[in-house]
Structure formats: structure tokens, C-alpha cells
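C-alpha cells as discussed.
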């Protein structure tokens, strides 16, 4: 894989400027996970995220290598927010660059599924008080 960027941040996620690693890139897939207001029927104020960053980074690096072998994408940018994330703000940003849209879309979907299943990132919901 040409480029992997894995970032954990406590501030709002800002998507980095798009830089194409080669002239063969024809697809850029971006995903943002937004904290929704209703989860499991409860109204939320937001989510609190924690991660074991050294292990999470190692696992994501390995996952991205495996997905690169399967889908052949050129680059991935992964940004996950830690700490308090209020409703309406992004907790996750993923950008995948590839020659074609199919591999980029599959890489992005598989990366998110694998992150949720295997990577030590935890969230805790804060229920909005009733008025």
C-alpha cells in the first residue's frame, strides 16, 4: 500500500486535503460516522470514546495490509475521535483511494466492519436527561 495514515484525535475531525499518490487513482471513497441522537430508542447527548491506542494502531495497520492484499487500494486515511463526541459530530473518518470504485468501496466497508469487530475502541453512550 502506498500510504496509510492512522490518527486518533481528541478534537473535531477535519478531513485532510486530498492528495493523490499517483495519476492512476480514479476513486476516492470517504465515510464519516456521525453520532446520531437516537440509539436503541434512547435520546443521546453524545458518546464517550476510548481506545488502547498502541494496540489499535497495530491492528488497524495489519487490517489495512490485509485489505490491500484483497482489494489493491493505494491509500487509506483513518481518523477516529476519542473523548466526548456530541450528537451531530463525526467520530470516524475513513478515506480510501484506488484505481476503481469497486475495490475502494469494498475496502472502506470491510475496514469499518473489521474495526468494529477487532480493534480496541470502546464507546459509552450518555443519555440526554428528560425535560
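Sequence:
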Amino acid at each position: 500500500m502506498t500510504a496509510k495514515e492512522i490518527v486518533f484525535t481528541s478534537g473535531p475531525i477535519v478531513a485532510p486535503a486530498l492528495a493523490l499518490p499517483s495519476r492512476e487513482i480514479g476513486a476516492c471513497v470517504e465515510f464519516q460516522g456521525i453520532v446520531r441522537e437516537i440509539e436503541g430508542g434512547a435520546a443521546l447527548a453524545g458518546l464517550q470514546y476510548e481506545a488502547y491506542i498502541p494496540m489499535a494502531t497495530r491492528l488497524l495497520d495489519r487490517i489495512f495490509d490485509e485489505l490491500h492484499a484483497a482489494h489493491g487500494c493505494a491509500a487509506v486515511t483513518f481518523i477516529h475521535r476519542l473523548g466526548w463526541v456530541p450528537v451531530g459530530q463525526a467520530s470516524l473518518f475513513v478515506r480510501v483511494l484506488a484505481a476503481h470504485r469497486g475495490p475502494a468501496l469494498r475496502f472502506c466497508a470491510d475496514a469499518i466492519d473489521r474495526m468494529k469487530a477487532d480493534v480496541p475502541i470502546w464507546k459509552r453512550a450518555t443519555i440526554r436527561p428528560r425535560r
